[in-house]
Amino acid sequence: MSKRSLRVYFVVYDDGNRSGTLVRSWSHFFDSEPPSAYGATPDDVYAELEAKLERAHAEGNEPIDRY
Q1: Which three-class secondary structure state does DSSP give residue 11?
Q2: pTM for this predicted structure
């Protein structure tokens, strides 16, 4: 079995910064927007996304297996 991972879609802007949006494995019709982040480096974006996922998991809002 392969190691589980998350997929992030990156967009790089003219100023060199980038945004990253988590890609869901499956979705529902009335889903909220997936978590996204903005930063100077991919590591900045990953760190912000990780914090958002941890917060959502702690609140019970969004199961991580959707990503």
Answers
A1: strand
A2: 0.81
Q: What's the DSSP call for residue 40?
A: S
> With bands split at pLDDT 50, 70 and 90, how would you rate the model's confidence at 24?
confident
Tokens of 36: 């996204």
Neighbours of 35 (CB within 10 A): 21
In whole angstroms, give the CA distance from residue 19 to residue 10.
Answer: 6
The pair of structure tokens assigned to 56 is 């959502």
SS3 54: helix
Beta carbons of 8 and 48 less than 8 angstroms apart: no
Dihedral sign (CA 34, 39, 45, 47): negative
